[in-house]
Amino acid sequence: MSSQARHIQGMTTLLQENSAETAREAELILRVKSGDHDVFYQLIQPYERRVFATAMAILRNEADAEDVAQDSILKAFRHISQFRGEAKFSTWLLQITINEARMRKRRMTIRVMESISEQADDEREYRPREFADWREIPSESLERKEVRNALIEALNTLEEKYRSVFVMRDIQRLSTEETAKVLDITQASVKTRLLRARLMLRDLLSPGLNGQWTSKVAFAKGVKPWE
Amino acid sequence: MGVTCETVWRESSNYLDETISPELRLAMDEHIQGCKQCASVIDGLRNIVTLYGDERMAELPAGFSQRLQRRLEANKPPTRRHFFGWAVAFAASVVAVGSFELLRHTAPKKPEAVAPPHTPKPVPPDMQVVVAEGGAHFHRAACPLLNGHSNLRTIAAAEAIHEGLTPCPRCMTEYL
């Protein structure tokens, strides 16, 4: 099948999907491809957060993540003619972001951070370490920046392969299948890494003996950001 | 069917995602009711998934969208319509300048009230700026975009420009 035929087939498939949102997205893609560049922002607006979160998952630094997120979106803008609709637009956009972030990471000197996951690998089972009672942590606690920062700091201590899967699945709410496509790994690996990431975060943010949250991450001593 | 603690831990993620068989779920529920440690694991994981899944955990930095839209605008490829627009604008400016010159020579002189077009200020070459390794911009020392960078250098703006860096879109807007 020629690339043109594959392109038409891909775009047709995209258009036929029974979703108003997908149809609107396909229409915007066609408009941008035919030169209506003004609508590109409408096309990527629903994915801004995902692109930024993906870059953050790899780079762990807001300034670099913003740079890479914006560079990735610009790259998608310049190369949209290469998007053939064989995968979802969001998957294609996130794949560009992953590549850009990894290239940036290679160029940067990353601080070596102590991580409980450094000895971990996919082959060995991760065993939970903390068994204190958990009380429900109200979502309202996220109104406080220090709580969000503490969660981010805990996430940042995970090795990239666990962090990226966790961000895709539990923050961006991508399916196991989509996550596997974006990261170019098997669905089985997604499940294994997600389990390990969740268990490690649970141990890192385990409750103290008196029911107060403490953290194994080096937050300021004596500070319990959850209270 | 009975399950061990190890099985509960191994399947805990699938349990939360509801991707296990009804039989295994029932067996895990029975085990969790009688096992404090496994209850702690499941409760903890549920908290983790709920907290990280909250929309507030995926917030964009302030002004991200505006900066992105400016960059997209600046990177639009020229189109035929744009070329035509430029041609019309150029022709109009030629006519305007010609008319202005004609008026200047024929009418009595008045103070000029034409607003100058926006031109960015040139960056003082000897201005001290901060650059982060691998970054594309140079910054003022207090720029929030530098937070978290470990490898920073302070150099003259001329040197930064020579290295191909451009003024930071957040802290040096007057030079853009």
Protein architecture, described:
The complex is a heterodimer of chains A (227) and B (176). Chain A contains ten helices and no strands. With 227 residues, chain A is mainly alpha-helical. Chain A has two domains: 105 residues, Rna Polymerase Sigma Factor, Chain: A (Orthogonal Bundle); 102 residues, Orthogonal Bundle (Arc Repressor Mutant, subunit A). In chain A, α6 packs across α9. Chain A starts with a helix and ends in a 23-residue tail after the last helix. The C terminus of chain A is likely disordered. Among the domains of chain B are: 54 residues; 48 residues, no CATH class. Chain B contains six helices and four strands; from the N terminus they run αααααβββαβ. Chain B is elongated, with a radius of gyration of 31 Å. The model of chain B has no long low-confidence stretch (mean pLDDT 80).
> Roughly what is the average pLDDT of chain B, rounded to an integer?
80
CATH hierarchy: architecture of the largest domain in chain A: Orthogonal Bundle
CATH homologous superfamily designation of the largest domain in chain A: RNA polymerase sigma factor, region 2, helix turn helix motif
Number of strands of chain A: 0
Largest sheet features of chain A: none
Strand content of chain A: under 5%
H/E element string of chain B?
A: HHHHHEEEHE
The total count of helices of chain A amounts to 10
Largest inter-chain interface? A-B, 61 and 52 residues
Short characterization:
The complex is a heterodimer of chains A (227) and B (176). Chain A is mostly helical and 227 residues long. Chain A has helices at residues 3-16, 20-33, 40-44, 48-59, 62-78, 89-107, 145-156, 160-171, 176-183, 187-204.
Could you list some keywords that capture this structure?
heterodimer; A: 227 residues; mainly alpha; Rna Polymerase Sigma Factor, Chain: A; Arc Repressor Mutant, subunit A; 2 domains; 10 helices; 58% helix; 0% strand; elongated; disordered C terminus; B: 176 residues; alpha+beta; four-stranded mixed β-sheet; 4 strands; 9% strand
